[in-house]
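Work Package 4 report. The design task specified in the project plan requires that, given a folded chain encoded as structure tokens, an amino acid be chosen for each position. We show below one input record used in the internal validation round.
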């Protein structure tokens, strides 16, 4: 049974938003309130340790994307794919999304089997819509933040303005993704404001009414 057809028990929530908008922080706040959560980026990072994934990555990009210890250098891949949409599509659609999707399916199905009314599973999955998986979740949350704030957080990751814009442009248009969301969180205040928004969101998602 696929996640889209499983009998709803508990609520599966997709978490998407602008790059560097505070999605992970919101996810952690919801976890503190009692939600279960899956970080799709963490799944992707773990995939690069698989021998078959490394082999396919080398076949697509060449051996220069490997570090001296043989591990995949994700920063080198990012330099390539965010400048070449064809490479990005081959990486995501052929290598990453099928494997990530399988793990997400397994996690969703396990949650459905054991969840009780009011339980939440948060999928922190920035490319959920790009991968065509909106039907996997019961509710969709969009997170956004002012540009200067996002640029500051991007800088902490080692991204400059050009890199942040490149990553945005590789995704679906923000307007269409925001329009698809059931809830919009605007992260433009102090951390306590986001915490209050997390509490309100929690109440809305867990309220049986």
């Amino acid at each position: 049974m696929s996640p889209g057809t499983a009998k709803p028990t508990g609520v599966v929530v997709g978490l998407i938003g602008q790059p560097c908008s505070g999605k992970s922080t919101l996810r952690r706040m919801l976890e503190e309130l009692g939600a279960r959560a899956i970080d799709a980026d963490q799944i992707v990072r773990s995939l690069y340790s698989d021998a078959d994934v490394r082999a396919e990555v080398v076949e697509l990009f060449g051996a220069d994307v490997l570090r001296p210890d043989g591990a995949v250098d994700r920063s080198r891949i990012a330099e390539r794919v965010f400048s070449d949409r064809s490479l990005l599509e081959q990486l995501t659609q052929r290598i990453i999304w099928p494997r990530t999707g399988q793990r997400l399916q397994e996690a969703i199905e396990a949650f459905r089997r054991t969840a009780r009314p009011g339980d939440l599973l948060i999928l922190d999955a920035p490319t959920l819509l790009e991968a065509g998986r909106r039907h996997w979740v019961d509710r969709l949350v969009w997170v956004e933040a002012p540009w200067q704030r996002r640029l500051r957080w991007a800088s902490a990751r080692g991204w400059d303005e050009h890199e942040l814009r490149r990553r945005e442009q590789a995704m679906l248009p923000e307007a269409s993704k925001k329009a698809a969301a059931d809830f919009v969180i605007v992260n433009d205040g102090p951390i306590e404001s986001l915490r209050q928004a997390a509490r309100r969101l929690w109440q809305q998602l867990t309220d049986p009414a």
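The two ends are 27 Å apart (CA to CA). Validation will be extended to a larger panel in the next phase.
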